[in-house]
Amino acid sequence: MTINMTRSQYTNISALLLLFFSLVLMQCTSKPEKQASVAEPTAMQDGYKAKGLAYAAGNQQKVEAIYSNLVSALEDNNAISIVAQVNHQQNASKAGMDLNPTRVVLFGNPKLGTPLMQANQQAGLDLPQKILVYEDEAGETYAAFNSVQYLASRHGLDTVSTLPKIENALSGLVKNATNSQVVNPDANSVSLNEGVVSKESTNSFTDTYEKLSKAIEGNANIKIMAELDHQQNAKSVGLELNPTKLIVFGNPNLGTPLMQAAQTVGIDLPQKMLVYQDNSGTVRVAYNDPYYLAERHGIDGQDDVLRKIADALGSLATAATK
């Protein structure tokens, strides 16, 4: 059978065939598309901003569920003692301010922590250990803690033998509580003594601590959350340590605005002051510089609050050391 076509019909059919074979060729030679990567939540990126802060995502769990898992695990471990539990959101509410769910638990194991202070008593400023659990503005939950490398570099503890055990314990607690992998920050190390203010006292260890305690108690805006005798805890596990005491206290009116700016700063709140006597007999009071904490957690626009905190801490240290 013969099919007669005009020139225009022939041209149209040829064009259609050419288009068909071109499409087939493209499908055969093109590479499969990659799935679009899921962007990290803002809070996770904020976690990276905080120097030395390791964390795990909550996998849709609420803060209370993660925190409950965490506390239960701590209570089930006979080697660990819970020193204090702080509900930052509740404290903010009492001060008439709003804050997303934010909780921190302070706990310790003297067998693991004392060797750090034997190497450098100033490490007691970051002991006991702390784990922060919070929900960000997007509704994502996280559990965070100070990485071992952060503690080691800040206090010169790289050779202390208990560091790997501490790292495994902290990572295990957070991993089990969140059912999620722990992420270590890119900015994991800091310089020696970074952000630590230290003042030498003209008084004895006992007098220095008593003066500090009375100065805090005499301020109606401040509440003592916990007091910890590191030396006594060391003795309880058969270890020696020079006189070393920590006092934990806070003022939600000043702390809450910082957490509103960056919830991760809750790991460093409430405030802490360490009193210790070194091998030479020198007594010192050490505490975290609030401006350093702002830098660590990427806090902007809180200069007035930071100045008030710095002035208050300076006044307390002076009252204890003079």
Automatic annotation (TrEMBL):
- Identify one Pfam family in the record: DUF302
Ranges for domain DUF302: 86-146, 228-290
The UniProt entry, under CDD domains, shows:
DUF302 (cd14797)
Could you tell me which InterPro entries the record lists for this protein? DUF302, TT1751-like_sf
Which PANTHER family has this protein been placed in? INNER MEMBRANE OR EXPORTED, SLR5037 PROTEIN
What this protein is called in its record is DUF302 domain-containing protein
Task: Specify the species.
Answer: Pontibacter locisalis
